[in-house]
Design brief:
about 0% strand
């Protein structure tokens, strides 16, 4: 049964709701780690811990936050934000459920 307005959820939405999000990382912890990851990405030594990667793959709000931060930092460093965003999206990938 879908939402009360009669619409059905998409397969992507269903997968997102039922997917495992282990190893677990809170939004607060993600917030604390995102700056360090973006800095490492911009300076060509990206390191994305598995709990942060899983959180970003499962949390649209923090995925958007990270992408915005990458674009902002890329502009300050005169880096190509398209290349950095592509590298970020490749790092995050998807998480099987």
């Amino acid at each position: 049964m879908g939402p009360t307005d009669g619409t059905k959820i998409t397969p992507t939405q269903a997968e997102s709701l039922t997917a495992l999000s282990e190893p677990w990382l809170s939004c607060d912890d993600c917030f604390e780690q995102i700056d360090l990851y973006v800095d490492s990405l911009v300076h060509d030594h990206p390191h994305l811990d598995e709990p942060l990667r899983v959180h970003l793959a499962r949390c649209p709000a923090y995925m958007e936050e990270a992408e915005s931060l990458i674009s902002l930092v890329a502009g300050e460093d005169r880096s190509d934000d398209a290349d950095l965003l592509a590298a970020f999206r490749a790092d995050v990938g998807s998480v099987g459920g």
